[in-house]
Amino acid sequence: MPFSIKDVERGLKVTDRRADQHGVDNTTSPAITHKEEEELSGDRTNDFREKEKHLDDEEPRCNANEHDRISNGAEIQRTPTHKSHTSLKPKLAKLTNLALTRSNASIRDPGPPPDGGVKAWTQACMGHLVILNTWGMVATFGVFQTYYTTELGFEPSAVSWIGSMQMLGHFGLGMFTGRALDAGFYYYSLVPGMLLTALGMFMTSLCTHYYQFFLAQGLLTGLGCGCQFTPSMSLISTYFARNRSTALAIMASGSATGGLLYPTIARQLLPAIGFAWTVRVMGFIMLAWSAFHEPAYGLYLLGLFLFCFGIFFAFYYITSFAVNVLGVPYSTSINLLMIMNGVGLLGRLIPGYIADAYLGPYNTLIPLCFLTSIILYCWAAVYSVPSLYAFAILYGFFSAGFQGLFPAVLASLTKDMSKVGTRNGMGFGVVGLASLTGPPIAGALVQSHGGGYLAAQMWGASMMFAGSVVVLLGRLSITGWTLKIKV
To answer: Looking at the predicted structure, is the pLDDT value of residue 330 above 70?
Structure first.
């Protein structure tokens, strides 16, 4: 029961009386004796009983049974007078518990940083790729500045606002995304940032007016870069103490790598495929790097991308090679393609059985990748029809083994089955992108060399061999050099 005005006045009188007795200023010693406190408590109890009796006489609110239940100590239920407040209480309680849980997680002492080791330095290298796509892209804006002013006729000052907005989002958003990292929401900031950056580039490829470029490249891409930059820089700092400066330097050097990569792409592709597709290629590259926050999964996707650059070249061009180089009839060239596809039945079944029974899908896939790339190198030594048949059989068998096992490896790298669809979709998207660009590049090499296939054969086989090496590195990132583990 709260104090009434009468209680306060009585307390002040008692305090003044004690102060007069002991010669103490009542502003500094307002305490009362135990006896006087009991008197005040008794007076308050009497006041409460008088008020309660008065209310009962004035308006009785319960019958005899309810009065007995209340007098026996049962809890009185309060009738809600504002439904919205009552319905919000459980939701507010859940949000409070969630906030407290995240906050408690952030203040736990994780112990000293590892300051080295495979995981810490891998994080630094992966951070290098994040900066490549963010700071490196921002540092490349000079390419767009020149193109927008010379080709589109925009004012230089107006174009600079696009780059400045991109820079503002890149650095300025850190005041919010840095706090998200502290609260444990790193991936919730990183992944949307990657998607926003790539989406901004794809939308830039469709722009025709100044305001569209400002919103897509300046605002959207800037926000995406800001969601990635500060959390990633801060995260790497937690892995190092003595070597922190070196690790952050490795990470920050991604801006130099991106400053070399993207202008080179623009210089080579703008005259060949135009502005729209050049920007789309940059967006695809951003998506390809975005998977690297998990080393094993990211390395595997990069290996798939490189390997699939060259694997379908033989399927597309073996008939043309047979007709144009060896001079066989068209019907014979079709037979070669049918044989290459037909042996793929055994090529898929046998490696699949070996993977399940003995080695595991990842361990079985690696030798298939290396053998397929070596066989494609051997295509350059084919000068007769029988040797072309042998090439078709061997290449069809081992390449089919790869095509049958790479989805199984992709699924095995996902431990959380609630995300298997998303991660498999990312992997198939990478394969689709490589398959989209690989055969046309090989065809351009054939055409540029006057119908000769050697350059295209070496290019395709080299891409596949490089992809095999990266797939092997992804395997080593799981268990190290311990190879007798079924993966």
So the answer is: yes
What is the arithmetic mean of pLDDT over 120-138? Answer: 83
Distance of alpha carbon 448 from alpha carbon 397, whole angstroms: 30
Only one residue has tokens 């809600």, namely: 80
Residue whose pair of structure tokens reads 């059989």 in the numeric block: 393
- Secondary structure (H, E, C), 112-154: CCCCCHHHHHHHHHHHHHHHHHCHHHHCCHHHHHHHHHHCCCC
What percent of the chain clears pLDDT 90, i.e. is strictly above it? 22
Contact 129, 292 (CB under 8 A): yes
Whole-number Cα distances in Å, 436 to 98, 421, 440, 460: 45, 22, 8, 14
> Within its chain, how far is the Cα of 265 from the centroid?
24
Task: Measure the CA–CA gap between 446 and 329, rounded to whole angstroms.
Answer: 21
Identify the structural domains of the chain with CATH numbers, from first to last: 5-65 (no CATH), 119-293 (1.20.1250.20), 302-479 (1.20.1250.20)
Pairwise CA distance, residues 198 & 361, whole Å: 32
How many angstroms separate the Cα of 451 from the Cα of each of 284, 379, 447?
A: 30, 15, 5
Structure confidence at residue 94 (pLDDT): 56
Given a cut of 80, whether residue 482 has pLDDT beyond it is: no
Angle between helices 117-133 and 254-289 (to 10 degrees): 90
Q: Which residues contact 267 (CB under 8 A, 6 or more apart)?
A: none
Q: Is pLDDT of 1 > 70?
A: no
- State CA 316 to chain mean position distance: 35
Rounded Cα distance, 115 and 239, in Å: 6
* pLDDT tens digits, one per residue of 192-206: 888 888 888 888 888
